[in-house]
Amino acid sequence: MSDDTIRLVTIGRILRRRWRLLTVLAVIGALVGYGTSVLFPPRYTASASVLLPGQWEERELLTQAEIATSSAVVDRAAATLRWKGVGGGELRDRVSARTADGNIIKISGTAGTPQRAQQLSDRVAQQFVTFAARIADESADPDAAAGAEALRQKVAQTNRRITDLADAADPGRTVEGVQARTELEKLRTALQEAMKKLDDAAPATNKAGMVVMGPAARPTGEAPPTRTQLVVAGALLFFLLAVLGHLAAARVSRRLCTEPEIAAALGSVLLGTVEVSDERPAHRPGGSGPWARIRRLLGVDTRWHLPTPRMSGDEADRRIRYRRVCARLREQLPAAGQLLVVVPDGDEIARRAAGQLVAEAESDPSCHSSSTEHPLSLVGVPVSRPLVPDRDTESGALVVLSAGSWTAGELAGIAEACADAGHEVVGVVVAGTVRARPTRTRSAGRPPQHATPSSAVGGAVRGGSV
């Protein structure tokens, strides 16, 4: 898993095998989002539009938007609102302005109620228009304004004089009269165009007169993030963090998943792989207590990263694998003797497989001799502090475990414990789970003669028929 690319099948496996845990974490995230919404009361936002007549460049519009949210404007709005405990400094964080198409500046105000949000945006827009008009009046040059007005009067007098001259000309009777009237009209048109250019070039007269385009509409919904959004965001965040946590844990995991790696960590040879049906036993070692019940309820007591168990044959097919392991044991140890079957504590799959292996060895007459009544003896070993019983009549130790459960260091500790007790690890058997088909009658195989005894999957068991 640590070297594989994360695929959709991996995500699906997490969702299928950890759906209870993911659901609980999503509910916790939703509660956290709800608590956050309680700590931060709802906000409402209203917007008022201000029209700036004339021709404006983009940088000039941005400057006006900055003026709309300046302290000079917001402080005046706060003074007119007279909200208790709310000053201009706090309102500056609630007011924003942006430019829109058509020389329009939208001023938005945020408050705890829809009515206050509407009042805030309206007052700021009014104060902005007043402040901008005052700036325009103060920046205007009185002499230039007087000169422009005098020029307009002169142009008006000239237009009247042109009209008098056109009337005095001999209209339509002679060629000279028609030419005179044409020249006078051209002069009138040129004067009008010159005055128009003069008016367009005067910013004080062209850019004054900003207009508030009606009162702000009262908001009908909360400003984001709303309570619903916070609840959904909290649930989604916790859900994604849980999935990412599973992926990260699987990627950094050092548990061995292949048979060659497991055999190398134990310093022995692989005798074969056996299968047990994929079922949950009624009792599990160490499964008592409230925490164990919670783990079972959430489904975190089973490994999620292992592939889905494949479909296998019936019981007779699975027993063939156990008999082959027994045959390899006889080849490995030609001399008759008793073997100690070592199973790590907490490996339920390995315990069930070891119990069936012990039962199969007892039912195989070729495994018995006059000096050995019970060929295999099962013992459970704690992985944290492995301790194996000292050698008595055993000829060695056989380690049975499942793939993807233990690290190389843990398996090396079991091998060292066997060596300290005088047992040589003669082989390794890897157990896996399969989905069993209904049992059918076979002529080539034998029907099961021994169910797995309860003592065979118990704690530390030595000798007997386990």
Automatic annotation (TrEMBL):
Record carries keyword Thylakoid: no
Keywords annotated in UniProt: Cell membrane, Coiled coil, Membrane, Transmembrane, Transmembrane helix
Coiled coil: 148-201
InterPro entries attached to this UniProt entry: Bact_polysacc_biosynth/exp, LPS_length_determ_N
Keyword Transmembrane annotated: yes
Main location: membrane
One Pfam family from the record: Wzz
Subcellular location(s) per record: Cell membrane
Membrane topology value: Multi-pass membrane protein
Domain Polysaccharide chain length determinant N-terminal: residue ranges: 4-68
Region (Disordered): 438-466
Transmembrane segment boundaries: 21-40
Family indicated by similarity: Belongs to the CpsC/CapA family.
Protein name, as recorded: Polysaccharide biosynthesis protein
